[in-house]
Amino acid sequence: MSQKQIIYLAGIIDGEGYLGIRKRKNPGIHYVASLCITTTSIELANFLKDIVGGYCCVTPREGNRKIQYHWHFENHSKLRDLLPKIKSYLLIKNKNCQNLLNFLSIEGRNPQLREKFCQKAKELNH
Asked: pTM of the full predicted structure?
């Protein structure tokens, strides 16, 4: 990924992105670091898939609303590589990024510590 793409991605994340931790229960509790962006631009959704990876879900048009494309990226090893590259360019979501990096650095199961970072992510995203 080029420096220009890294800076652009950071701007998109600051404006339209979500950096958080999802708690999944199936079976047991699993925590998943997540980078998501919702957009009405299929070009942007495809750009994100091309340069970073991940997957897209579509919310169909409803009433006056446009079709929405939800890009998700949850690959922990690739997030450990990506987040340090974009962190210094994040002006609004820098703390969210640091919380996610802290979460991704946890070794072993450690459910209490994972829950702590999950709660912190909820606070930062509201």
From this structure: 0.90
Question: So where are the chain's domains?
Answer: 3-124
As given in the structure block, the two tokens for residue 112 are 């209490």
What DSSP letter does each residue of 69-126 carry, written as one string? EEEEE--HHHHHHHHHHHHTT-SSSHHHHHHHHHHHT--S--HHHHHHHHHHHHHHT-
The mean pLDDT of 61-69, rounded to a whole number, is 91
Residues 6+ apart with CB under 8 A from 80: 101, 104
Tokens of 77: 């090893």
CB neighbour list of residue 96: distance below 8 Å, 6 or more residues apart:
19, 20, 90, 121, 124, 125
Class for domain 3-124, per CATH? alpha beta
Alpha-carbon 51 to chain mean position = 14
Q: Give the model confidence (pLDDT) of 3-41 as tens digits.
A: 999 999 999 999 999 999 999 888 888 999 999 999 999
Tell me, what amino acid is at 56?
A: C
Q: Could you report the per-residue pLDDT of 74-116, keeping only the tens digit for each?
A: 999 999 999 999 999 999 999 999 999 999 999 888 999 999 9
